[in-house]
Design goal:
It contains eight helices and twelve strands. It is of the alpha/beta class. The protein has a single domain, classed as Ribonuclease Inhibitor (Leucine-rich repeat, LRR (right-handed beta-alpha superhelix), Alpha-Beta Horseshoe), CATH 3.80.10.10. The chain has a nine-stranded mixed β-sheet with strand order 11-10-8-6-4-3-2-1-12. Strands 5-7-9 form a three-stranded parallel β-sheet, with no helix packed on it. Strand 3, helix 4 and strand 4 form a beta-alpha-beta unit. The N terminus and C terminus are likely disordered.
Length: 220
């Protein structure tokens, strides 16, 4: 907590991007929520956030007043992602992006996204098989629900998604999306004329990202 306190004081509350460490206590997460009012990007890299900590995360969302993007390295079973999405929808009108690198995007998660974040602009569900070697599980049915419910998406990435095969029905439903990234036969296929590399999310956002950045996963 001492090093965390030092880093946040050094940033003087101007940190806009925080990548959490693999292990973090609830009081540390609450401290970050209080001391980073400019927070726009928050990443949870841990594949095993203890349930007692995870269950308290939704209660902190109202403090993330400027949050624009939430990243999950791994969406573990029992993680209260639908409730977090609901709280974001209730409190964060400027929220525009979600990314998940591994785990299952199930009916409950999809229902929460289309219900509470219909104006979502960026959704990256690209699997990274180096993370527990499981990638992202996403069904065609749920992708179609997202396409139907989130009409303002202009960036959608569904690369390396288990159970998902891009067909003509999906392409038709996604035809309005400026940047649609999917994978067929181990090759990336782009739908749309403009190139977008999600590895550099900050290039997509408007505004200045040259403020203080706290990489807690490296510091703690």
């Amino acid at each position: 907590m001492g090093l965390l306190n030092f880093l946040l004081k050094l940033s003087n509350g101007s940190s806009v991007k925080v990548i959490l460490p693999d292990t973090i206590a609830y009081n540390e997460l609450a401290y970050i929520s209080d001391k980073c009012p400019a927070l726009e990007f928050l990443a949870f890299p841990s594949p095993s956030i203890p349930k007692d900590i995870a269950d308290k995360i939704p209660s902190l969302v109202h403090k993330w007043k400027n949050l624009e993007h939430l990243h999950l390295e791994y969406l573990q079973g029992g993680f209260p992602f639908p409730k977090i999405i609901e709280e974001i929808g209730r409190h964060r009108k400027n929220f525009i992006g979600i990314s998940v690198n591994a785990g299952t995007i199930d009916d409950e998660v999809v229902s929460a996204i289309v219900t509470w974040l219909p104006k979502l602009r960026t959704l990256d569900l690209s699997g990274v098989f180096g993370i527990l070697d499981i990638g992202v599980t996403l069904s065609k049915k749920n992708l179609l629900k997202i396409l139907e419910g989130c009409k303002e998406l202009d960036v959608l990435a569904v690369r390396k998604c288990i159970q998902l095969k891009i067909d003509d029905e999906i392409l038709k439903q996604a035809s309005h999306i400026k940047n649609f990234k999917y994978e067929v036969m181990n090759e990336y296929c782009d739908f749309g004329s403009d190139y977008y590399d999600y590895d550099d999310f900050t290039n997509y956002l408007e505004g200045d990202w040259n403020d203080w950045v706290v990489y807690l996963s490296e510091a703690l």
